[in-house]
Amino acid sequence: MSNTERKVVRVLVTYFTVMRGKILEWDIIEVLKSMGIILQRADMELAHTRERDRYTKHALTNTIKTARVNQVVSKLQRDKDHNCSCLVKIVNARLIRNHKIIDDDVLYLYNGKIIDPQTYFFTFGDLPDVVIDAKGLLVAPGFIDVQINGAFGVDFSQMQSEEKMRKGIDNVAKGLLKYGCTSFVPTIISSGIEVYQKVLPFLKPRKGNKTNGAEILGVHVEGPFIEPSKCGAHEESHLRSASGGFSDFVKVYGLNEGKDQKDQIVKIVTVAPEVEGVSDSLEDLVRAHITVSLGHSSATVAQAELAVEKGARFITHLFNAMQQFHHRDPGIIGLLGTKRVPRPYYGIICDGIHVHQNSIKMAYDSHPEGAVLVTDAMAAMGLPPGDYTLGDIPVRKIGDERVEVIDNGRLAGSVITIDACVRNFREFTGCSIIEAVEAATLHPAELLGIQNIKGTLNIGADADLVFLDDDLRVMRQCISNNNTKY
């Protein structure tokens, strides 16, 4: 072994002793052997205690100059961690980041996270496992859908065998990736207690990856504490008051007030604040780490503002299943213009059927930072026209866009996809590409309080990405470093 090779070995042994603790002999012996450097076991004694103490991470990084040493460092670090994803470098991208489009930029992904360029360079060198050429496409955070009742023949509100439920949830999670949706909040409409008890455990938060599909962020329970006259497609027999206060919510959903947010299955609850006992329970729901949404309600604007004072932060499918706007009492819709309380986020279904495009533009013009695009999709999404169910309600998909309750013709959820919502929102409102994308990424993440890890391309965020053309059509996705193309 030459003196130069001994110096390289000394640096490597010292580096890994400092950075990773005790190093297994075969790691460095075998990798260096593959490079043509024959290392004897005696050479492992090169790293003495006083030398290790002398070195710091940055000093060692500056010492390791050659490309082949950087390659060894990169390979050993990645191979030692069997759970990590590969190192990915995305080039020629137009990043949607920090409310701007940054042209011809580069993004670095490792272990399911977005990492900063300095970490990439000093730790790994310039040797990624995968290089993705974005070819000038827009690269945005993955879309987040916080209200989706089902898709591809699966209805989250229906009890089935455990095997069918697991398989159905997996099929939806994987199928949503095609539309750029990398995270979602499965939604259960008003149901009997037995449905919540059986179904909720299957919808607990679950990380997204190539195997699982889109990440499950928790559950949105839409009802049963809603106003009967505004129940829409919900079965009226399932509706109830909260005369027992917060304990009724605990009983119905199986909540535990002491749970941390990350462990709470229920993340969003839609309630009508005028229903008995609901207003008095709002602060307890917030303390239980649940996002309170107002919907299926005839609440006055005063009742709605009081609910916001008590912690409500969201409006469920704005304009639908609520008191119509009146100039003397605008009801829940009036929250978009309130000055007395913070204006909440609002979900809006941009299929051009549930809400007229002029109404969508009015909402956007009054409160653009609050828009959260939702599909409110049901089991018929992704399937041909025909008869399906929404919870216990028989519904019919008419053409490719409309779903109605068979008995009364009421609208019953949508069949639109989240990427189509983004495109429609831009068309209906005339907003920028950035604003349209943020309504399906940053805003829902802020609503759920996860904006540091979702809905952003900032350093440390999850590596959930969607590649879009200039018409905002999905070209490919990346979830936890696993990239897919459709």
Task: Describe the protein's architecture and organization.
Belongs to the metallo-dependent hydrolases superfamily. NagA family. It comes from Cetraspora pellucida. It is an enzyme of class 3 (hydrolase). The chain has 2 domains: 3-79, no CATH class; 141-461, Alpha-Beta Barrel (TIM Barrel). The protein has helices at 3-20, 25-34, 49-54, 57-63, 67-80, 117-124, 162-176, 193-199, 246-253, 282-287, 301-309, 357-366, 418-429, 433-438, 442-448, and strands at 88-97, 100-110, 113-115, 130-133, 138-141, 143-148, 150-151, 154-155, 181-189, 215-216, 219-222, 266-271, 291-294, 314-315, 345-349, 371-374, 386-390, 393-398, 402-405, 465-468, 474-479, 482-485. The strands form 4 sheets. Strands 6, 9, 10, 11, 12, 13, 14, 15 and 16 form a 9-stranded parallel β-sheet that branches. Strands 1, 2, 3, 4, 5, 20, 21 and 22 form an 8-stranded mixed β-sheet that branches. α1 (3-20) runs antiparallel to α4 (57-63). The chain starts with a helix and ends with a strand. The radius of gyration is 26 Å and the shape is globular. β2 (100-110) and β3 form a beta hairpin. With 486 residues, it is an alpha/beta fold. It is 29% helix and 22% strand. Mean pLDDT is 85; it is low at 17-26, 43-70 and 79-84.
